[in-house]
Amino acid sequence: MQPQGDLRGPWLLLLSLLLLVFEVARAGRPVASCPAACLCASNILSCSKQQLPNVPHSLPSYTALLDLSHNNLSRLRAEWTPTRLTHLHSLLLSHNHLNFISSEAFSPVPNLRYLDLSSNQLRTLDEFLFSELQVLEVLLLYNNHIMAVDRCAFDDMTQLQKLYLSQNQISRFPLELVKEGAKLPKLTLLDLSSNKLKNLPLPDLQKLPAWIKNGLYLHNNPLHCDCELYQLFSHWQYRQLSSVMDFQEDLYCMSSKKLHNVFNLSFLNCSEYKEHAWEAHLGDSLTIKCDTKLQGMTKVWVTPSNERVLDEVANSTVTVYKDGSLHFHRVQIEHGGVYTCYAMGEAFNETLSVELKVYNFTLHGHHDTLNTAYTTLVGCILSVVLVLIYLYLTPCRCWCRGVEKPSSHQADSLSSSMLSTTPNHDPMAGGDKDDGFDRRVAFLEPAGPAQGQNGKLKPGNTLPVPEATGKGQRRMSDPESVSSVFSDTPIVV
């Protein structure tokens, strides 16, 4: 008969094993071996280069990195894994034959931070395709056949920092991805090189902050050559941005079906790029940003007199905001000059210089300028109208004319042939003749030596004065008349 103490040993061992299995099950870690086609090391599963047509089943829930690259996967459906992989942060699916991805395919992996879909056969990126990946930081989609990118394909990806879309067939620049404060607020790298981009939204790209332009790669695209494109990339070259400095030889454009380097467009006669100064007028409010190539840098501003500009201080006309911007509350003449921004970061330091020109007058806006010009034009027109009225519409001042005096026969000369348009009132005329209107007939006949060529009168000669007959007296016309008649035809006056 065995002692009672010897029976306790096996029971204690069995109880310990049961407790261990219970703890493992409670932790959510099933007692499952590594898939046969994969190589497992701790929480890393490598199933690469196994010619797999489908994703292996029963993947351990504790998997943190899953490598399924270099296989024969063609579709990624919503049920590609029955197990929810909440610990998975990296998923590698490159070098497969993927041509379809369900919009619900990433629901089982909500904490994914790195996704590699490069070197597949994807053609379109549909709306809300990656919306489940709200903490994803890096997305690789290069070397596919992508032609269309839906404007909502990357919605809700607020943590995405790097997006690789190179070596595709994209022809529309996705401006919505890089606009400041847009869908991807933390995006610092967008690779669109080696696509089919021909036209770029140049004014919008010029307005982007330097930390976005520094990671915007556009080389190896058949861009259209023009001076605006040259100015854009020349500015990026002046700022030493990585997107230009690393691929200067691969930045080219197309003109007349020929490739030209964007920095050698002499056939367009483009003007050289010059950094422009900031301009302001007296009393203006102005904010100048320290446009650094990295975000989150510590910034310090120094005035033209080599004095540090303090942070927001009461009653100060020049202050520095919390985001590092230099703000002028009311611009004064003494504010003109070159300001320097010293930016300090973990990777490198950066120094920027900005020139401010202040004009010694106030500017109230373009509406006032327009009103002033309009008023001046109206004033000029009114002045011209008044001058014309004065010249042509002023009434004749008859009172200033002298009193008519009868001219003697001896004083009558060539000027006597002029006929007055106003009736003559002769106080010496007969009594019963109508004084209101005096009708006369004058005959001008050449007389011997006074006749010139073609019957015209020669100046200096006199005409014979006919004698008065009857009650009326025939007299010569008023010498101050404005009409002259040299004719043998009788004229009724």
From TrEMBL:
Entry-linked Gene3D superfamilies: Immunoglobulins, Ribonuclease Inhibitor
GO MF term list: potassium channel regulator activity
Lineage: Eukaryota, Metazoa, Chordata, Craniata, Vertebrata
GO cellular component, one term: perikaryon
The protein's name in its UniProt record: Amphoterin-induced protein 1
A Gene Ontology biological process term: cell differentiation
Annotated keywords: Cell adhesion, Cell membrane, Cell projection, Developmental protein, Differentiation, Disulfide bond, Glycoprotein, Immunoglobulin domain, Leucine-rich repeat, Membrane, Neurogenesis, Phosphoprotein, Repeat, Signal, Transmembrane, Transmembrane helix
Native organism: Capra hircus
Nuclease in keyword set: no
Residue intervals of the Ig-like domain: 283-353
InterPro entries: AMIGO (IPR031283), Cys-rich_flank_reg_C (IPR000483), Ig-like_dom (IPR007110), Ig-like_dom_sf (IPR036179), Ig-like_fold (IPR013783), Ig_sub (IPR003599), Leu-rich_rpt (IPR001611), Leu-rich_rpt_typical-subtyp (IPR003591)
